[in-house]
Specification:
Order of helices and strands: EEEEEHHEHHEEEEEHEEHHEHE
Largest sheet: 9 strands, mixed
Structural class: alpha/beta
Strand content: 25-35%
Distance between the termini: 26 Å
Bound molecules: adenosine-5'-diphosphate, magnesium ion
Number of strands: 15
Shape: globular
Helix content: 25-40%
Number of helices: 8
Radius of gyration: 20 Å
Length: about 325
């Protein structure tokens, strides 16, 4: 199991151009790529904290740059049977959805549509190179975890039961019982499903008077390669996590408190898992939250990439520090 923790600092938006920028990317040595995030100590602004990552991307990083650096290199491994898991972690408004889903224009497309188009392309190539002996199938599931309950996003929100979908263990792996798996043959198929599912997500949140940033959205792309009786199966998971901000400070509505507790716990367990995996520990505490359990995080021989999204402005100062502190491998020096 290998894990990378990288940070992406987003640019200021048009309406933020007058804002004070306090977060910056730095290199360990001049001329080297960025691996450090620097941010002032809020108690003494003459002092700066540094956090080390495997890689740091600054305002100039495009969607294509990020995909080429962090995801494309693992597509080959996915087709060799390894599972690939990509998380976007960070405060609401820092660019998680932009990173994972992105915009509608070709250049703005995020990691997910780029991943899918590369998976389809590689699958078609494998079929062609094997003269049709190998068949490549792609199936999608998409679900969210809200208040520690699992809901299928490929089903309309009216179909939801209050308890959500149950989990079951089989051969040491955790499964969501009754989760829809839809076959998907090309980018057009994918886009249709993805738009429909994201609409389901927003509709469901609106009904509860909540916001979709309060749930974790998990897309699973199952790749099955069949050659005669030989079947090779692997999964790419792309996760847009709930916002990591501590909204207990500003909003003490009871429902929001319940949400915050569920979100904080699962993000804490996630960071503990990432930490344990990166240290090479045998015991990964993946059973302690639904999200890490469903992903069997650390139990598979796979690749995990966590992207910490950061906004550069002073108004995010404390939340940015706390998300830097939680993204475990990022050591404070
Ligand atoms: P989150 O999902 O973390 O709440 P969003 O992805 O919705 O954050 O991003 C907040 C806003 O910032 C959106 O308007 C988004 O388009 C914009 N944004 C985020 N990252 C970038 C980026 N790298 N380049 C340009 N705009 C960005
Ligand atoms: Mg979002």
């Amino acid at each position: 199991m290998s894990v990378r923790v990288v940070a992406r600092i987003r640019p200021l938006l048009k309406k933020e151009l007058d804002k004070d920028v306090i977060v910056r990317a730095a290199a360990a040595e001049e001329g080297k790529p960025f691996t450090i995030v620097k941010i002032p100590n809020p108690k003494n602004e003459t002092e700066e904290f540094s956090y080390i990552f495997n890689s740091v991307y600054d305002q100039s990083c495009t969607q294509e740059d990020l995909f080429n650096a962090e995801v494309y290199p693992h597509i080959k491994a996915l087709f060799q049977g390894l599972d690939v898991t990509i998380f976007a972690y960070g405060v609401t408004g820092t660019g998680k959805t932009h990173t994972m889903r992105g915009g509608m224009k070709m250049d703005d497309r995020g990691l997910i549509p780029r991943l899918l188009s590369n998976v389809f392309r590689r699958g078609k190539k494998i079929e062609k190179d094997s003269n049709g002996e190998t068949i490549v199938d792609v199936h999608l599931s998409y679900y969210e975890i809200y208040n520690d309950k699992v809901y299928d996003l490929l089903e309309p929100p009216e179909m939801r039961t209050p308890m959500g979908l149950p989990l079951r263990e089989k051969e040491g792996k955790t499964f969501v019982v009754g989760l829809t798996e839809r076959p998907c043959d090309d980018v057009k198929d994918f886009e249709r499903l993805y738009v429909e599912a994201n609409n389901n997500r927003v509709t469901a949140a609106t009904k509860l008077n909540a916001h979709s940033s309060r749930s974790h959205a998990i897309l699973r792309v199952k790749v099955t390669q069949t050659t005669g009786d030989m079947v090779l199966e692997s999964t790419a998971s792309a996760i847009d996590l709930a916002g990591s901000e501590d909204n207990r400070r500003t909003d003490n509505n009871r429902d929001r408190l319940v949400e915050s507790a569920a979100i904080n716990k699962s993000l804490f367990v996630l960071s503990q898992c990432i930490d344990a995996i990166s240290r090479g520990d045998k015991r990964i505490p993946y059973r302690e939250s639904k999200m890490t359990r469903i992903l069997s995080l650390g139990q598979n021989n796979g690749i995990t990439i966590m992207i910490l999204n950061l906004a550069p402005m002073r108004s995010y100062h404390l939340d940015t520090l706390s998300s830097l502190n939680v993204s475990s491998r990022a050591k404070r020096i």
